[in-house]
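We include this case.
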Amino acid sequence: MRGDAGAATLIRPRSAAEACGLLARTPGAIALAGGTDAMVAWNAGGLAGRTFVDISALRPWSRIRVNAHGAWIGALTTHTAILGHAALRRGYPLLAAACATVGGVQIQNRGTLGGNIANASPAGDTFPPLAAYDAVVVVTDGPTRREVPFLGVFAGVKRTTLVPGELIEAVRVPALRRPSRQLFRKVGTRAAQAISKTVAAGLLWLRRDGTVDELRFALGSVAPTVRRLRAAEAFVRGKRLDRETIQEAVRLVADDVSPIDDVRSTAAYRLAVSRNLLAGFLSR
């Protein structure tokens, strides 16, 4: 590994207030939770001489609560813990399905939901489900908290709207009525341990007369941040999902995504897959 352990500083605070204070007054300090992303950067030699604030001892941030109002998932909750929580699997199956696709078992055991969000990768597997569930990110600076709509926490590739000294404490997911259809789909080079080329989550509610009451469809890896297909969602509301409606909704996908060519895929492929995923979901 290229990281120089002797040049790094590791601090393990005992409280959230202490952790936030350290991050606020230590230039370049990095919050360390599961470390699955930090160790990749460390191995590449990109974090030499940095100060790491290890927040893994903040045990209350590992708690999960599910009730009639929704779910509270602590930022230090691992993907494995989400997969093992029966109430989360029942109430939020798209999130559980996404957690099952994150890396391998070792990554799922170490990686945390809050760390995944803070890393702000455009390809985060859990992001489309959380966007579709209208999740809220609970942010703290120690003494105070604020809530940020899930899509509002991302400022770009690997960038968030958090300010120095703020940490993600939890993710709050509202309760939702049972959807008529739901979808999680990850498209990658292989079935396991692959960064997604496109990742999608969809929820659809139909009225008794067959018209659309509500559509929520979110995509990752097709823009600098996770995107909801707002144009398509608005277009299908109140309509029957006939061939013409679906074709127009699929055409509107380009209004909300901006895929790029990179080492994993091409922009044209990502757009085509995104349209196919939405078409298949609406046609089912």
